[in-house]
Design goal:
alpha/beta, disordered N terminus
């Protein structure tokens, strides 16, 4: 009996041990899942041991976090997660919307991945720092939810590819830092006219791998954009076009040129790729033309538009004419455009030459722009008209000379219609015509030859030669009458040729 009780007791104990093992086994199997989930989701926010929480500011900087802490309070306005090891920013890093979060700091984390939905729940962000990470590319519409973002820091990454729509939707962006990356294409779509971010006033693409710049488009930008457009320390090839752009920006005292004058360098052609300051290209190497100023040259009766191109946007502007005369609505030849503050002058007169001054003011900044206008004492088409007159006179002179030579040296007509005429009749007809020409010359000084009237007389051949220039002298019976005038006739031939060209004055 007792033995049986002992056996039953042992069986019962073994049975309980088996049940406990079966109960513990599922928990043991769930441990890796919990660890993985914790690694993906992150640990709860601890404001006492790991993070510092001061009102609506939460700082979890430099505590070796691998994920963003969970259970962030919805009133969080500033979240500092810099100097950690958060390599991926997933869509679920904040499962609830943080509607008051306006500043997110994620620098120095080794970030290599940004989810396309990483910023869906933080649409109120105004400042986003993703600098000093390992980001390689920016996908399309990745920042589109951040319509209130004003500052975006992406410097010191490995960015080499930027989708053209990556910054779409950033309607409030003012400053974009892309320096110290591997960018080889200038993001022109951010600053050109139709696709420009209207509020953007600073774009830093310095210290990248840019080998070309859209110089014409950059030069056409307003000064308030060029003032904050930084592109120094790139691998630009040296050219006079680059020199002109940088020099003009420097003369305009734009910050992007004056603050980093020594860093604006280019590579000389050759195997060594020697660097030289762009501002020195006009001295030794490429012998570029020295850029002195941006004066305007015009002709009489032209109209000009003078830009008051200031370094700040939306400034109050007023113009002063040469002689310190303020522009007023009473002027009809000098009208200020209210849209952009430019001045339209014209039709210009010679006395309109001088220095036009634009005074621009704002709450924190004053600027003066000088534009020198030189009005040339000629119309725009004056030189062309004179050139046309000179060419017309020269062509007329050449045509007249050719006609004289044809009359002098062209052989007479020996067509079939003339062969039936008798020799005596031929001589009589030529003689009669010659006599009539000589009489006409004595009376009026004009001779009609082949339908043209020659005002300088007839050109007759000497009688003492039976044959001259391949044609027969038809006049044989009046040798004494013309022999004495042979030299005078030759002299009159030369004088007539020269007088044909001297009648019409040549204007150059």
């Amino acid at each position: 009996m007792g033995g049986s009780l002992w056996i039953s007791h042992g069986a019962t104990e073994a049975m309980f041990r088996g049940r406990s093992f079966l109960a513990v086994l599922p928990l043991a199997l769930l441990l890796p899942t919990v660890r993985v989930g914790a690694q993906l989701i992150g640990s709860p926010l601890d404001c006492h041991k790991t993070c510092v929480c001061a009102s609506n500011i939460i700082s979890c900087s430099n505590i070796n976090l691998t994920n963003v802490p969970i259970t962030l309070p919805q009133y969080t306005a500033v979240l500092d997660l810099s100097f950690n090891t958060i390599t991926k920013l997933r869509a679920e890093w904040t499962p609830v919307p943080l509607k008051r979060l306006h500043r997110l700091l994620l620098s120095h984390n080794g970030l290599t991945f940004l989810s396309s939905e990483a910023f869906v729940n933080v649409k109120a962000l105004q400042h986003l720092d993703l600098s000093s990470n390992g980001i390689r590319q920016l996908d399309e519409f990745i920042f589109e939810p951040l319509e209130h973002l004003e500052v975006l820091l992406l410097y010191s990454n490995r960015i080499s590819q930027i989708d053209r729509s990556a910054f779409s939707g950033l309607n409030s962006l003012q400053r974009l830092y892309l320096s110290h990356n591997q960018i080889s294409r200038f993001p022109l779509e951010l600053v050109k006219e139709r696709s420009r971010l209207d509020t953007l006033r600073l774009l830093d693409v310095s210290s990248n791998r840019l080998k070309a710049l859209p110089l014409n488009e950059l030069q056409a930008l307003p000064a308030w954009i060029k003032n904050g457009l930084y592109f120094h320390n790139n691998s630009l090839p040296c050219s006079c076009e680059v020199h002109e752009v940088v020099t003009r920006w420097y003369l305009k005292e734009l910050s992007s040129a004056t603050d980093f004058r020594g860093s604006h360098t280019c590579l000389l052609p050759g195997q060594q790729k020697e660097k030289i300051a762009i501002m020195d290209l006009n001295k030794v190497y490429l012998n570029c033309t020295e850029v002195i100023g941006m004066d305007r040259i015009a002709h009489l009766e032209q109209s000009l538009v003078l830009d008051c191109d200031t370094r700040e946007r939306d400034m109050t502007k007023r113009w002063v004419l040469p002689g310190n005369i303020p522009v007023s609505p009473a002027f009809k030849t000098a009208v200020m455009r209210p849209k952009d503050g430019s001045l339209q002058i014209g039709p210009l007169k010679a006395e309109d030459s001088g220095v036009y001054t634009c005074y621009a003011t704002s709450e924190s900044f004053n600027e003066t722009v000088y534009v020198t206008v030189m009005v040339l004492n000629s119309t725009d088409s004056g030189g062309l008209e004179n050139l046309k007159t000179a060419y017309t006179t020269l062509i007329g002179c050449l045509v007249s000379l050719v006609m004289v030579l044809i009359y002098l040296y062209l052989p007479p007509c020996r067509c079939a219609c003339c062969q039936g005429l008798e020799k005596s009749d031929l001589r009589d007809s030529l003689h009669s015509s010659t006599v009539s020409i000589s009489h006409a010359h004595e009376e009026t000084g004009q001779v009609e030859v082949g339908g043209f009237v020659n005002k300088h007389g007839a050109f007759l051949q000497p009688k003492d030669q039976l044959e001259q220039n391949g044609r027969l002298n038809p006049i044989g019976e009046e040798e004494e009458e013309w022999q004495g005038d042979n030299r005078e006739r030759r002299r009159s031939d030369a004088e007539s040729v020269s007088s044909v060209c001297s009648d019409t004055p040549m204007v150059v």
